[in-house]
Amino acid sequence: MVEKSKITEEVYDEETLIDALKNSDMAVFREGFFQLHPYDRATLYKKVEPEERKKIYYYLSPKELAEIFELSEIDDKEYKLYLNEMDATYAANMIANMFADNAVDVLNELDKAQVVSYLTIMDQDSASEIKALLHYEEYTAGSIMTTEYVVIPQDSTVRSAMTILRNAAPEAETIYYVFVVDDDERLTGVVSLRDLIIAHEDTLIHTIMNDRVVSVLVSEDQEEVARMIKDYNFLAVPVVDFQQHLLGIITVDDIIDVLDEEASDDYSKLAAVSDMTTFDKNSFAAAKKRLPWLLILLVLGMLTANLIGAFEETIAQVALLAAFIPLIAGTAGNSGTQALAVAVRGIATKDIEEESKLKLVLREAGTGLMTGTICAIFVVGLIYVWKQEFLLGLLVGAAILVSIFVATISGTLIPLFMHKINIDPAVASGPFITTLNDLISTLIYLGLATTFISGL
Hints:
Layout: H1 14-22, H2 26-33, H3 38-47, H4 50-59, H5 62-71, H6 78-85, H7 88-96, H8 100-107, H9 112-121, H10 124-134, H11 141-144, E1 151-153, H12 158-168, E2 177-181, E3 187-192, H13 193-198, H14 205-208, E4 216-217, H15 222-232, E5 236-240, E6 246-251, H16 252-270, H17 283-310, H18 312-317, H19 325-348, H20 357-387, H21 390-420, H22 430-451
Parallel strand pairs: 1-2, 4-5
Antiparallel strand pairs: 2-3, 5-6
Helix pairs in contact: 1-2, 3-5, 5-7, 7-9, 8-10, 15-16, 17-22, 19-21, 19-22, 20-21, 21-22
């Protein structure tokens, strides 16, 4: 009896691969590197030191490295750094082996002279395909679409369609949707891979295709495209011109990047930071981004300080009034920020339509009135128990009620107004709303205190 031999493939960990790079052991590195998941390869590439990366460029072909750049979460500003480590011809060939839309993303982060250099070096077909996408305006459907997709004539049979699919599949970004065009290259339908597999070989494509195709214009904003793919649960959506000529497709993986980019952008604005898409590695870069907003908020803060100074006589007569200024300002700021978050999200998701904006304002006003009333009753009781000052409690409670009501309305109206005049409502950031409400709530509180000072 002959015993079957068992071949056990050696498993390489990250540390072993890094050691292989340091020891210039190409065979071990390549064997272990291609055992890793593509995402883990990209992670390893970013992790190693520049000297080790230069060895990777020697050990991997441009096509093999292109897969790393496709999957790696490389910050926009790092593309130039990595490409400068490579030989120019190697870098150009690597970019040429990427999907066209991803290659455009890389080139958009480089200097114009560098872009021209790479396009000159790479093969003519790849360069022409990339150039066709480079001229589209940034953040539009055209700028994120890919031209690597499968397209078939509407009068072809399933048999010929499958032949086209087999030939085009190696270069296509996705094959789950096959797009159908007429003789003028106009989009007329779409067929899923499943429909092709189960259909009879002699069936004509136009009899099984779905002719109610959801498409986007090449000039459509990428955020609108992302919303459409999310709403329809598409894996890809075709991009057309105004005459319905098929120009490209946008795949769900590109949309995930768009959603991440838009979310980071909105969060940056809500936090009053100019850019949070990259992690700052030094204090100077971080301070440079944050300082402009802080200076604007500082000016608003100075207005609040001047306002308090204007009521100096009132505060001098009842010194305890000053103790409740932070309480009222903070509560109003929090309430305004809550309303702001609801309004900005509603605008971003298109939940707020033109006819429902008044309804939103009325709802938030009612919410502010109810929450303000409850907070006012609570603080009146708290101050009475703490200081045995019922009239002071009523004053602070009334100030909180009015401040929360006004802050809630302002937190709703400001982003709606900005959206109306075509300014991103996210710039009505949390710190901005908070500081503005500090000013308003202080004015309300000290104004009431001045009016009823005799009772105190």
